[in-house]
């Protein structure tokens, strides 16, 4: 079995693959100072609840954008699973040609998301990831990672609006019942929901203008399903695209 980990700024998503199938998925909060042994206890508990054994894992692959976690994740993998993990970087053989000016700056999650999208469509495509930041990653019809766009995330915007104003409340991100809010909470929710939906659709319009009218779009991340309800472009949602991308990269590395 393969263990795939997506270590992001807000969450660490963990997937267990049995052959081609993602059989279990867990999401944990990102705690940067968590030790290798704490990770090991967590993994042992998760596996026990899922009816799995640590010994069933014969490979670990990680996409991390949180460098302080890398050492403890490496030690956890070696101590509790008896294997050295593979960390995806811009130098990893993913099958995509990297066209970024400084490849060192690309988040590993953005690379593996693009790998999964290319495998899905085999054409020009855009991955919209609604996470801590909203990222748009583009792949050409020639399997080239071209770069993308980064915007502040919805959660960050909610927190900033609350912390930088004297009277505006902290609100939940919800689909509003009407465009025009009848009170402060619903007015903020409408601004967030329709504002981000139109921001996303507007940027996708521009990207399609660059990449061509046959460009495919896939959304992922915590708020993707909600945004997709009103988006003109986001129809395909894959909450596990990063894990699937890691699985594809692992298979490619094993073949080579």
Structure description:
By secondary structure, the chain is α/β, with parallel strands linked by helices. The protein folds into two domains: 2-87, ATPase, nucleotide binding domain (Nucleotidyltransferase, domain 5, 2-Layer Sandwich), CATH 3.30.420.40; 97-240, Nucleotidyltransferase, domain 5. Helices cover 39% and strands 25% of the residues. It has seven helices and eleven strands. It has helices at 36-49, 67-81, 108-121, 154-163, 184-211, 224-228, 241-255; strands spanning 2-7, 11-18, 21-29, 59-64, 86-87, 97-98, 125-130, 133-139, 144-152, 216-221, 236-237. The strands form two sheets. A six-stranded mixed beta sheet has the order 6-9-8-7-10-11, sandwiched between helices. A hairpin with a 3-residue loop joins strand 1 and strand 2 (11-18). Helix 1 (36-49) crosses helix 2 and helix 3 (108-121) packs across helix 7. It is globular, with a radius of gyration of 19 Å.
